[in-house]
Amino acid sequence: MRALLVAANPDPRSLTHYVLGRLEAALQPVSVEIADLSEERFDPRFTEADRRAYHEGGTYPADVMAEHRRLERATDLVLVFPVYWWSMPAVLKGWIDRVFVNGWAFEHSPSTGLRPKLQHLTTHLLPIAGDDSGAYERHGYERALRTQIEHGIVDYCGSRRGSTAFIYESEQLSPEARMRGVDRAVRIISEAIHARVAE
């Protein structure tokens, strides 16, 4: 078992990074690799070279191939990110745009249709939300985010759905209440991964 934790927040002192550290510790003895997209300066821009690779498959930019190797080593992927405008930060969206590409994450052609390729991977989500769970439920924000990522990306590429654990009110709650939210989310994700180890 090997977990790849992908973080998207430019501030190393952020709650995102605190959660990342807590999750890494909770996952022991599972092997953990961290991809801090901001610290590593991952370029999220989908370029002409990416477009060619998407259509042709097999000739990917070097930084994309490095991410493929990371994901090929992983059994579990955990996306840890703040919710921006009811979605993921641009750097994480760009990572998915560039890395989860035709020919590697899936194959699609008019003649054969869709063939997902990430069946070896289980994907978990740990979104950090500024608003409360009631607002997310009333406005359909959680459902929209889960549909976009779980169905639109995870299912499409054939990855298994793992656990999704929101941390709500990350900017409004008292430090004690915020830590209870962190504890809950870290427990949900780590227990899901440890349960797979025990299978």
From TrEMBL:
<keyword id="KW-0560">Oxidoreductase</keyword>
<dbReference type="InterPro" id="IPR029039">
    <property type="entry name" value="Flavoprotein-like_sf"/>
</dbReference>
<dbReference type="Pfam" id="PF02525">
    <property type="entry name" value="Flavodoxin_2"/>
</dbReference>
<dbReference type="InterPro" id="IPR003680">
    <property type="entry name" value="Flavodoxin_fold"/>
</dbReference>
<comment type="similarity">
    <text>Belongs to the NAD(P)H dehydrogenase (quinone) family.</text>
</comment>
<dbReference type="InterPro" id="IPR051545">
    <property type="entry name" value="NAD(P)H_dehydrogenase_qn"/>
</dbReference>
<feature type="domain" description="Flavodoxin-like fold">
    <location>
        <begin position="1"/>
        <end position="187"/>
    </location>
</feature>
<protein>
    <submittedName>
        <fullName>NAD(P)H-dependent oxidoreductase</fullName>
    </submittedName>
</protein>
